[in-house]
């Protein structure tokens, strides 16, 4: 990863329902990333993204055509891990292309319209006959139920108080209030959390991520070239990937390592590549599809020991000046749901020190994670010197 930097970021304004075509949303994010970097469309000659949604709904060829790039030109195209894991690990693929000269400037993009699902994202799982026949009749269905099961097991093994889940949601909400465009910004006290409807015990609505439409994009190049561009480059220090011991979505229902996420693999890899450790990290942008997932990642990434994450969420504090500010834009819980792409964009802005009253003081090292079942990716970014 030596000598690779993120030089431009962009995102569409997140909304519950975006009636525009998906490609229009994606190109809005791409155009904003190009403007952020001070680059032209013709500067892009590499394309990387996740492998599950983008090859069908917004393939690289469509991005090239929208950018006005000539078909006869030479381009590098690669799709990596699925979903958010592929977005956060995208710098790994970009680094390969940049290192051997296959590309000089690499674009990563993603967009989704969850509003188009008639029954929400869980509609995907209803297509699995095993779930329909063996799990759904017993109520074992849907992401809130799956993660509630993890929370129940955590409570059985280590103890879990409602306020320990609440503080994760409350921190995200407080950061969202300082982030333009965040979807959930209403003040949330502990009493507000307790009044939030129970979805799947012990998870309330406030413990569950948003469902919205949105698109993101970011641009990568070599450090040598990055220093001549518009924004301070953000250095890619390390990338790690991990995989659950079961395939696909069975990670939710058939996983023998129920309370250990693949962050236990991806985190150490990223730290090793960056030659850094948890104590070097100034802030984290953790994949917070549900509050319990943030707690599990505190443990699996090495910030605390197993069974200590829930207590740590409370003890570390929620202010930007406290220990390990988490999801400083509001995360999936309060900002928007873009599969970890928004987390990466926030980390870049923090390390460029441009977040105003939402800025982590003197932020130098940030950690970003994302899930793409059964995979997980960790990305360590550094401010340039």
Describe the protein in words.
The protein is α/β, with parallel strands linked by helices. The protein has one domain (4-116, 210-383): Peroxisomal Thiolase, Chain A, domain 1, CATH 3.40.47.10. The chain is 35% helix and 18% strand. The chain is globular. The mean pLDDT is 95.
CATH uppermost class: Alpha Beta
Report the average pLDDT across residues: 95
Q: Encode the helix/strand succession as letters.
A: EHEHHEHHEHHHHEEEHEHEHHHHEE
What fraction of the residues are assigned to beta strands by DSSP?
Answer: 15-25%
Counting H and I runs of at least 4 residues, what is the number of helices? 15
Radius of gyration: 20 Å
First-last Cα distance:
17 Å
Any descriptors?
alpha/beta, 385 residues, 15 helices, 9-stranded mixed β-sheet, Peroxisomal Thiolase, Chain A, domain 1, two-stranded antiparallel ribbon
Characterize this entry briefly.
With 385 residues, the protein is α/β, with parallel strands linked by helices. It has helices at 22-37, 54-57, 60-67, 83-88, 90-99, 129-135, 143-158, 162-176, 190-195, 223-226, 263-274, 291-300, 309-315, 331-334, 341-351, and strands at 4-11, 46-49, 76-79, 105-113, 198-200, 203-204, 213-222, 234-243, 283-285, 365-372, 375-383.
Topology, please?
Layout: E1 4-11, H1 22-37, E2 46-49, H2 54-57, H3 60-67, E3 76-79, H4 83-88, H5 90-99, E4 105-113, H6 129-135, H7 143-158, H8 162-176, H9 190-195, E5 198-200, E6 203-204, E7 213-222, H10 223-226, E8 234-243, H11 263-274, E9 283-285, H12 291-300, H13 309-315, H14 331-334, H15 341-351, E10 365-372, E11 375-383
Parallel strand pairs: 2-3, 2-4, 9-10
Antiparallel strand pairs: 1-7, 1-8, 4-7, 5-6, 8-11, 10-11
Helix pairs in contact: 8-12, 8-13, 12-13
């Amino acid at each position: 990863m030596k000598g690779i930097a993120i030089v431009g970021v962009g995102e569409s304004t997140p909304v519950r329902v975006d009636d525009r075509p998906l490609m229009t949303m994606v190109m809005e994010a791409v155009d904003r990333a190009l403007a952020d970097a001070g680059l032209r469309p013709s500067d892009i000659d590499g394309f990387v993204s996740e492998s599950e949604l983008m090859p069908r709904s917004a393939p690289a060829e469509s991005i090239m055509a929208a950018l006005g790039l000539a078909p006869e030109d030479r381009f590098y195209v690669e799709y990596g891990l699925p979903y958010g894991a592929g977005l956060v690990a995208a710098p790994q693929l970009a680094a390969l292309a940049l290192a051997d000269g296959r590309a000089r400037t690499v674009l990563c993009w993603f967009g989704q319209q969850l509003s188009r699902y008639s029954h929400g994202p869980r509609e995907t799982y209803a297509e699995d006959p095993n779930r329909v026949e063996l799990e759904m009749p017993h109520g074992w269905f849907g992401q809130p139920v799956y993660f509630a099961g993890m929370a129940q097991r955590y409570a059985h093994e280590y103890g879990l108080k409602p306020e320990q889940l609440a503080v994760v949601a409350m921190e995200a909400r407080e950061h969202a209030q300082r982030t333009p465009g965040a979807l959930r910004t209403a003040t949330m006290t502990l009493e507000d959390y307790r009044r939030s409807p129970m979805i799947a015990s012990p998870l309330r609505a406030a413990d569950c991520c948003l469902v919205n439409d949105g698109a993101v994009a970011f641009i990568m190049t070599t450090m040598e070239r990055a220093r001549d561009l518009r924004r301070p480059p953000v250095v890619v220090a390390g990338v790690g990937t991990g995989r659950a011991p079961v395939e696909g979505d069975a990670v939710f229902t058939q996983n023998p390592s129920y309370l250990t996420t693949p962050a236990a693999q991806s985190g150490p890899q990223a730290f090793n590549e960056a030659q850094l450790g948890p104590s070097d990290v100034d802030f984290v942008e953790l994949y917070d599809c549900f509050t319990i997932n943030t707690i599990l990642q505190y443990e699996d990434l090495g910030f605390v020991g197993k069974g200590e994450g829930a207590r740590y969420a409370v003890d570390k504090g929620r202010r930007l000046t406290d220990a390990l500010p988490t999801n400083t834009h509001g995360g999936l819980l309060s900002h928007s749901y873009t599969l970890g792409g928004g987390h990466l964009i926030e980390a870049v802005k923090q390390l460029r020190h441009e977040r105003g009253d939402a800025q982590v003081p003197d932020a130098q090292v940030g950690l970003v994670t994302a899930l793409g079942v059964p995979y997980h990716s960790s990305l360590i970014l550094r401010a340039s010197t």
